[in-house]
Amino acid sequence: MAHPAMDRRACLSYHWNAMPVPESAAEFISSLIARARPLQKRIVFPEGSDPRVQAAAERLAREGIAQPILIGPKAAVRGVKFVDPSASDRLRKYAGVLYERRRARGITQMEAEQIAGKPLYFAALMVAVGDADGSVGGVANTTPDTVRAALHAVGTAPGIHLISSAYIMALHNREFGHNGLIAFADCSVVIDPGRVELAEIAIATAETTRRLIGAEPAVALLSFSTRRSGRHAHVEKIVEALRVVRERAPGLNIDGELQLDAALVPEVGRSKAPGSTVAGRANTLIFPDLNAGNIGYKLVQRLAGAAAIGPVLQGLAKPVNDISRGASVDDIFHAAILTAVQAASARSAGA
User: Fold this and answer.
1) Which helix (H) or strand (E) holds 153?
2) How much is the pLDDT for 10?
3) pLDDT tens, position by position, 214-240
4) Nearest to 94 by CA among 107, 103, 85, 104
5) Three-state DSSP class for 269?
6) What are the tens digits of pLDDT across the range 12-64?
7) pLDDT score for 189
8) For the domain bounded by 23-217+283-345, which CATH number is listed?
9) In contact, 190 and 3? CB cutoff 8 Å
10) In 3D, which of 270, 295, 292, 293 has the Cα closest to residue 281?
């Protein structure tokens, strides 16, 4: 399982940066809103007493983008449903679901009832049983707690054993990726993936590219080496990960190992990896470990003025997303929109 060492900046938070928001970012968010609005997904927020959450929820309701559900005592927030776990007639059912999922790990029925009443678990269990379509939490809880509740209540998708994350990087230069949009992974969760874990991250991120960006993924497994130009155990891990992906997802357009310039720049790709269908046109970048991924996305964000939209948690059976405790109202609003689109995509994919 992934080690939840999340480090993230929230969606489109540009108060620290004088550079303008890339047009690709604004257009991407607008496209997500257009996709989410007719779906009217039910998005639950476990930290419903937080004023930022209430403001974001009121905006979602006012603009008709989603149906927000806030966990906590009822407050004067227009158009928003509140649910108090301690007074809910669904608590016993949720506790039963949690007990069935966790009894092999030694949980008792009484413990399940106590845990199910906690807001993070209550919200995740609402998603698990279909009383909500997705959950957004983390403004008052740590990432490990948020991810743990999601794993225990919702679980991983079929065939997936790993939770990872991806950022959608929106660039000023539209020549890169899909009209300036590129998925980066894993930048937040899995510290040192082995070859199988790296393969799972690549497969999951390809689906994120397909579902959220709306593009057919061209996946580059990044390295300091291209086509065995370097010899090292780190390179062999990438080569082995590519083999695993091709066994598990034979139709996926993926290549590696590729240096970053070979993955993104057409002339370099043709020179270093002739014949590759990914080199020079990648829209999905898989970093070899969390060091590279975290440094990479922040370099692009800070020096190139890109917007880092996310992170999106990948690998769960149903969407539960974690956001920073320093998140703004806009960050929470955007995370909810991403979650609504994820929920629709997951349903259409049979998740």
Assistant:
1) helix 143-153
2) 37
3) 999 999 999 999 987 768 888 999 999
4) 85
5) helix
6) 443 334 568 899 999 999 999 999 999 999 999 999 999 999 999 999 999 99
7) 87
8) 3.40.50.10950
9) yes
10) 270
Phi and psi for 263 in degrees, rounded to 5? -75, -30
Distance, first Cα to last Cα, the chain: 20
The C-alpha angle 280, 204, 214, rounded to 5 degrees, equals 60
Cβ-in-10-Å burial (0-12, 13-18, 19+) of 245 comes to buried
C-alpha span between 315 and 139 (Å, rounded): 22
Cα dihedral 346, 146, 50, 28 sign: negative
**Would you tell me the crossing angle of helices 23-36 and 329-348 to the nearest 10 degrees?**
60
- Predicted pLDDT at 19: 65
Angle of the 143-153 helix axis to the 119-129 helix axis, nearest 10? 40
Planar angle of CA 35, 37, 42, nearest 5 degrees: 110
